Amino acid sequence: MKKTPSLTELEGDVLGFIWKLGPATAYRVGKVFADSPSSHWRASAGAIYPVVERLLEHRLIRGEHKQRGTRSSALLTITPAGEAALSAWVAPDSVNDLAAFTHDPIRTRIHFLAILPRNKRKAHLQRVASALESQVSEYSDTSSGEWADGDSWDDAVRRGALEMHRARLRWVRWCLDHL
């Protein structure tokens, strides 16, 4: 029996969006990343094409070339092997990596905040809190709790992102209070 290949986070996300979007071009998948509110995913938009090439090479997706005027593009679809790999990536046997602390540039920098004089620490934390407040407000306003786009899991993802930002804001305010 052939072993299901393990996927990187980016490969899993690209494969997942090809599955979710149905037949889609690499450009359309890249647009999902480019339009993301997360700087992490926006930065990955340019990495989509090499990932697509790897997924094609491993036969996790297939591409059917379509001619549109003078342009040719490949409509990508997930293969049965791709569905197996995506399922294994979504729900791995061990979830320890999924539950691990992830990179947070605010937390990383606060670790070294003592290099700044107290007044600059406070000013920096106030700017961070203000930026988080703006993002929480903007994200809350655009969603207003009515995300019914036909996919309740998309709603759950949006809610998770909003709740994480709210938690980060509470923590930054706590840091300000304890300065």
Provide a quick synopsis of the model.
By secondary structure, the protein is mainly alpha-helical.
Measured as a percent range, the helix fraction is 55-70%
Task: For the largest sheet, list the strands in their spatial order.
Answer: 1-2
Can you summarize the main beta sheet? 2 strands, antiparallel
Mean pLDDT: 87
Percent of residues in β-strands: 5-15%
Question: Whole-Å distance between the termini?
Answer: 59 Å
The structure class reads mainly alpha
CATH class of the largest domain: Mainly Alpha
CATH topology of the largest domain: Arc Repressor Mutant, subunit A
Defining key terms:
179 residues, two-stranded antiparallel ribbon, elongated, Arc Repressor Mutant, subunit A, 2 domains, mainly alpha, single chain, 8 helices
Helix-strand layout with pairing:
Layout (H helix, E strand, L loop, with lengths): L8 H13 L4 H9 L4 H6 L3 H10 L3 E8 L2 E8 L1 H11 L14 H6 L7 H26 L8 H26 L2
Helix pairs in contact: 1-2, 1-4, 1-5, 7-8
Structure write-up:
The chain has two domains: 9-90, Orthogonal Bundle (Arc Repressor Mutant, subunit A); 105-177. 60% of the residues lie in helices and 9% in strands. It contains eight helices and two strands, in the order ααααββαααα. It has helices at 9-21, 26-34, 39-44, 48-57, 80-90, 105-110, 118-143, 152-177; strands at residues 61-68, 71-78. Strand 1 and strand 2 (71-78) form a beta hairpin. The N and C termini lie far apart (59 Å).
